[in-house]
Design a protein that fits this description.
It is a single chain. The protein is an alpha/beta fold. The chain contains 18 helices and 16 strands. Strand 1 and strand 2 form a beta hairpin. The radius of gyration is 25 Å and the shape is globular.
């Protein structure tokens, strides 16, 4: 197996490839040449120049041409100009942000504009959820940092081969299965029965709805349920994750743009408000909408018209808006980061989804639902929970709510060798204190931020990076908690 190493000498990073058998600490590093015919073009997008150099050297043994890009800002024009067959795309480009949302955003952009280009996503934050999400969004494959040379080359080569299959006589094109939106699980808890009664009354109307709740409680699933019960259900719901959009592209994503409006605007493009005409627009994490964009959004909702970036033409829109957030928008109004008049406009009906720990009677039915779903997906039907495993699930705090439970069950199904999921496969800890005695999530979050500020000596950029959030989010939380 090949391994990739870097050493720094005279301020220059020197990269060497060697095999385990060829390595000798008494000998200079040895470059191992790959017996491959160079063909195709690869574009590598990563903000780490050392990684760009390393991967370019490695991939140069396979591809005829390797192009590097240190920022995704000119990604679209670079693809238009250089026409790569494969793009190796980093998922995170800013310090302190490790959600992978940026990678997902640019993946969608490439798929929309260049459907024949295969995208391999590149990330240091490896987990099943992110990998599965990337594959669902259409990524060809997923490479984890630090990488294994042979696996990376094999993945890139397979991606290149896939681009050659299209239109090839006698070849069979593999079609990814269509993802069916997960149905709404109402459960047996009184809280969810109350929410269901609200949905039954308001879904048929065009009233704007604000859904709040912690991360992982199923806000988008509820939004799809509302849309499916509305008169607009004949058209697909349009979703927009405000946490995934680079700040400089907010206006274009919402309102669209005309050709030449900015760099890489090579053609006219409709925004999500225009795309959702006659349907429902779901704006997730609406609290991330920049303050300067909130007035324009308010105007669009009030006047039911938009103007594309770079144009003076007024376009009428007909949408039903469903928004979601895990933050307290009333606190954001008090801190001046969210407009009160916009909050009134989007908050005609407010639905708050309770955290999973507050509806424990739903945990086991949900777990069984996921066992059935992933058992079918991975060809392991008939799997059940042991009594001890079920008890452990009921005692866990579930700070990540339904999403955490879903990921826990998926991993357990994958690792299960028989037909019974036992406690050790769940990889979760039991909370042994009564829930009345534990800190609330907000109290724990406040304490975590306060501790990080002390550790980082007040350097807020370092605090944001350590906590894995943006600086703006950190500032909002500092104001919220009075730190």
């Amino acid at each position: 197996m090949n391994y990739f190493f870097a050493c720094q000498k005279n301020r220059q990073v020197v990269y060497k490839i060697f095999t385990r058998t060829s390595f000798d600490i008494n000998l200079p590093y040895k470059i191992v040449m790959c017996n491959m015919v160079k063909t195709g073009r690869l574009l590598i997008v990563d903000d780490n120049c050392n990684i760009l150099s390393a991967v370019k050297l490695l991939a140069g043994k396979l591809f005829e041409d390797v192009i590097t890009l240190s920022s995704p800002n000119t990604l679209i024009s670079t693809i238009q100009r250089s026409a790569p067959n494969v793009v190796l795309l980093d998922m995170n480009f800013y310090a302190g942000i490790n959600t992978g949302n940026e990678g997902i955003y640019w993946l969608k952009e490439i798929q929309t504009k260049f459907p024949d280009v295969k995208v391999v996503l590149f990330t240091a934050y490896a987990d099943i959820e992110l990998a599965v999400r990337a594959m669902k969004e259409g990524a060809f494959d997923f490479v984890v940092k630090p990488w294994d040379n042979e696996k990376m080359l094999s993945t890139l080569q397979n991606a290149y081969r896939a681009t050659k299959q299209k239109g090839k006589k006698g070849s069979v094109k593999q079609v990814a299965p269509v993802e069916v939106a997960a149905p709404m699980f109402w459960g047996d808890s009184a809280e969810m029965r109350h929410i269901k009664s609200i949905v039954e009354r308001v879904a048929i109307t065009d009233a704007n709805i604000l859904i709040t709740g912690e991360n992982g409680t199923g806000k988008e699933v509820l939004a799809r349920e509302i849309h499916s019960r509305s008169a607009r259900c004949t058209k697909p719901m349009v979703s927009l994750d405000m946490g995934a959009i680079p700040e400089m592209l907010f206006e274009s994503e919402l309102f669209g743009h005309t050709k030449g409006a900015f760099t890489d605007a090579h053609s006219n493009r409709e925004g999500k408000l225009e795309t959702a005409c006659g349907s429902t627009l779901f704006m997730d994490e609406i609290g991330n909408l920049p303050l300067q964009m909130q007035s324009k959004m308010l105007s669009a909702l009030q006047n039911r018209t938009i103007t594309r970036l770079g144009s003076n033409d007024v376009i009428p829109i007909d949408i039903r808006l469903i928004s979601a957030t895990n933050s307290n928008l009333h606190d954001a109004v008090q801190s001046g980061t969210f407009r009160q008049d916009l909050l009134f406009r989007i908050n005609t009906i407010h639905i708050r989804i309770p955290p999973l720990r507050n509806r424990r009677e739903d945990i086991i039915p949900l777990a069984n639902l996921f066992i059935e779903r992933y058992g079918s997906k991975y060809g392991k039907t008939g799997i059940t929970l042991s009594a001890d495993a079920a008890e452990r699930l009921k005692l866990h705090v579930w700070e990540g709510n339904i999403r955490e439970l879903q990921n826990t069950i998926e991993k357990a199904v994958i690792m299960c060798e028989g037909d019974i999921i036992k406690p050790h496969l769940l990889e979760i800890d039991i909370c042994r204190h009564s829930f009345a005695e534990t800190q609330t999530l907000e109290e724990m979050e406040r304490q975590t931020i306060a501790n990080a500020i002390v550790v980082c000596n007040g350097n807020l950029s370092m605090v944001a990076q350590q906590l894995g959030i943006t600086r703006q989010t950190l500032y909002n939380k500092i104001k919220r908690y009075g730190l």
